[in-house]
């Protein structure tokens, strides 16, 4: 697998393959991947770079140079997959587009991830996650208490496009087993994000209107799908609106009469919100958690990132990995029984595997 991508979408896709044993050759421009120079370092690499590029091999090629381009094409001859994330048109100008590569190697699977896809009026427009969250309506539906958009905690379109790209690559590899022919996969980050809005698009798809975020089921209109403050300054999230959860907690509180209010989202649920707010404000987080666990209600404590890594469940499953330098790594979430992942935690130095170039 040849990885020509940078930042998150392409590298996260190829990381999944590397963690599960694929040989991934990262083709870097002179000067290296952008993420080698972004953020904190805790050793020879930035955390950003090593998190997405562990277990890969690094070669340096200037694809604008005829000799280096020839060396890249030689790698393509024996490769299964190429992943790139440049703007549409760049690969063709460099002579490394799908048409060129598939003419040499018809079995090649080529995944191109871009902001808006390979065609259309915005195809060549640059955009990162925040712009795409804005354009798809996601940011406009992610509102803080002041009614204004809140900054997203993670770059959702980056990860969604990586995972959709991974699915496409795997489907194309499976199809190749039958046809002997590879394929071109066009992943638009805008479309991957829109595809993930199906559960909140009801008012738009059914009635053509913008959802009233404060009143919808999973964005503020449900008493059993929101966070609450506890008396010790900690917070918890109630996150289950099934009837059994509602009746268990309201029944325990002696207010089962309020349960019908939770059948539909909206401001009429305010009495339930008020009851739960008062209940949890009179308890510590530990006390509230013990109660909710005893009642088998769906909930979670609001944790910091350090607390999340120290979570007993995360520890029990060995999801946080430690390398020889004592640095922590996020594990791979895809768990096979018969072919478990064996991630290498080594991040390649720039050009470390230059001997792969003929």
From TrEMBL:
Keyword Transferase on this protein?
yes
Keyword Transferase assigned: yes
UniProt xrefs under InterPro entries: CoA-transferase_III, CoA-Trfase_fam_III, CoA-Trfase_III_dom3_sf, CoA-Trfase_III_dom_1_sf
Q: Which superkingdom, per the lineage?
A: Bacteria
**GO MF:** transferase activity
| Provenance organism | Novosphingobium olei
Q: What is the phylogenetic placement of the source species in the record?
A: Bacteria, Pseudomonadati, Pseudomonadota, Alphaproteobacteria, Sphingomonadales
This one is known as CoA transferase
Q: Which keywords describe this protein according to UniProt?
A: Transferase
Residues spanning the signal sequence: none
